Amino acid sequence: MASNIKIRVLAMALALTACASIRTLAQGATAAPASTKVAIVSIQDAIANTNEGKKELEALQQKFAPKQAEMKTLNDDVENLKKQLQAQGDKLSDEERGNRVKTISDKQKVLQRNYEDAQNEYQQAEQEIVNRLGKKMMDVLEKYAKTNGYSVVMDVSNPQTPVLYASPNTNITKELVDAYNAESPVAAATKPATGAARPAGAAASRPPATGGATPKKP
After folding, report:
1. 58/181 Cα distance (integer angstroms)
2. Which of 57, 69, 95, 129 has a CA positioned 20 to 30 A from the CA of residue 45?
């Protein structure tokens, strides 16, 4: 009799333990987070490829075109003087050679100063455009992400973003451009924008493609 009671008690204990385990598993399944939907975007490319971005950057290019032409003329002048000095150097007196070297040096200093001023002015104007349009793009991005169930969107145009691999179908750059254009009153240009040209020599001083202006957080 005592043996039967012990068996029944043990069976009840095992049953209670099994029920508790089932409840724990059920609760764990309920509390488990849903899979996180992640997307990547090149925010610089997105801004630059909107109708408004193309228009703004094209206008910036046109604004700096005269200054760019002026610096090219000065640069050509310096290069021609260098060639003349190299070709005639052994036929010139020490005084004449010294005068020409000084003329070239003075022109180079003016060219360098003009270039630095133009580059700084261009970069400031470019950053202003990117910041202004970037605020609008952030609103579009937030709405798009919520509508399409994205929990995380990472900016791969920022070299500090640690994205080592991303499937191409997670890139929503074009979708954001389309969404931005749909909300913007700026129509598409009748001809493709040629892209914003930096002052002569500026491209060499800044990383290509992903090294352009980045919208600052508001």
Report:
1. 17
2. 69
Domain boundaries, the chain: 46-199
Give the closest residue to 54 by CA, choosing from 81, 62, 23. Answer: 62
Q: Which helix (H) or strand (E) holds 81?
A: helix 51-88
Distance, CA of 196 to CA of 55 (rounded, Å) = 10
Residue 88 has a CB neighbour count (10 Å cut-off) of 12
With beta carbons less than 8 A apart as the criterion, state whether 196 and 61 touch.
yes
- List the structure tokens of 214: 């980045």
Q: Which long-range contacts (CB under 8 A, 24 or more apart) does 162-169 make?
A: 163/40, 166/40
pLDDT in tens, 144-186: 999 999 999 999 998 888 888 889 999 999 999 999 999 988 8
Q: Give the closest residue to 127 by CA, choosing from 56, 66, 195, 175.
A: 56
pTM metric for this prediction = 0.66
Measured CA to CA, the distance from residue 19 to residue 42 in angstroms comes to: 51
**Cα→Cα distances 141→43, 64, 173, 193, Å:** 10, 31, 10, 24
Contact status, residue 201 vs residue 115, Cβ threshold 8 Å: yes
45 token code pair: 């490319």
Coil vs helix vs strand at 194? coil
- pLDDT tens readout for residues 96-114: 999 999 999 999 999 999 9
